[in-house]
Amino acid sequence: MASSPSSTSSASPPGFPSLQPAYYCRLNVKAEEMCPIGDIYSGSKSVYVPTMTGHIKSVDGFEPKVDAQVVGGGDFLYFDPSNEHARVNVKGVAKSDAGSIFTFGYTGCININEDIGKIFSGVPLSIPFGQSTTNHYFETGDLKYKALENCTWSGNGRFVFENGGLSVESRISRVVPSTENPPL
User: Fold this and answer.
1) Mean pLDDT within 9-34
2) Per residue in 125-162, pLDDT tens?
3) How many CA atoms within 13 Å lie on the side-chain side of 4?
4) How many other β-carbons are positioned within 10 Å of the β-carbon of residue 153?
5) Phi-psi region of 54 (alpha: psi -120 to 50; beta: other; left: phi over 0)
6) 55 close to 68: Cβ distance less than 8 angstroms
7) Cα angle, residue 159 at apex, residues 124 and 2 outer, rounded to 5°
8) CA neighbor of 104 nearest in space, from 53, 154, 70
């Protein structure tokens, strides 16, 4: 299996962005309704996974505050021919507690290890953070949430099996640009 890039230092050199914790997102997977599409032109195996329920909630103190229920969506999942990685392409719709509608989505890469392989084979397991990173986006017509469209978002994902169901959980952070200017 190919290795992933890693960091050996906790301090960033000047000019690199930082992350501000912003949202928790949990999508409930309807594994029994998965739709295998098959091998596609790119050589990847494609599967559609419905995720019709879930929630998106703010980390305490983050603005704009979001407390929303997912009302529909799904993951267009692509497995690399090597089966070492899967590519996620999630798209969904959420409704806030105040009635505002917004769309959300993310793309990313999952490193497929033995436990992740078991999840995709239908074995009920929880998998900790560390195998998936994602890039998120939000779209809305509601001015209260317009700021969501104007940020860059990064996520870290895991699988949670509880109460007889599988969920995908993401911790979403806002990417904060650096104001430090290293010498050229």
Assistant:
1) 88
2) 999 999 999 999 999 999 999 999 999 999 999 999 99
3) 13
4) 20
5) left
6) yes
7) 105
8) 70
Looking at residue 122, its pLDDT comes to 82
Reading the block at residue 87, the tokens are 């590519």
Closest CA to 151 of 180, 118, 176, 168: 176
Q: Which has the higher per-residue pLDDT, 176 or 7?
A: 176
List C-alpha distances in Å: 122 to 11, 26, 33, 115, 125.
40, 19, 12, 11, 9
For 84-104, how does the pLDDT look when each residue is reduced to its tens digit (9 = 90+)?
999 999 999 999 999 999 999
One-letter identity of residue 17: P
Q: Residue 19: which of 151, 167, 123, 169 has the closest Cα?
A: 151
Measured between alpha carbons, how far is residue 9 from residues 13, 15, 103 in Å?
10, 15, 36
Tracing tokens 């993310």 back to the chain, one arrives at 106
Residue found under tokens 């979001």: 66
The amino acid present at 129, given as its one-letter code, is F
DSSP states along the chain: -PPPP----SSPPTT--EEEEEEEEEEE--GGG-EEEEE-TTS-EEEEEE--EEEEEEPTT-SS--EEEEEEEEEEEEE-TTSSEEEEEEEEEEEETTS-EEEEEEEEEEE--HHHHHHHTT----EEEEEEEEEEEEEES-GGGGGGGGS-EEEEEEEEEETTEEEEEEEEEEEEPP------
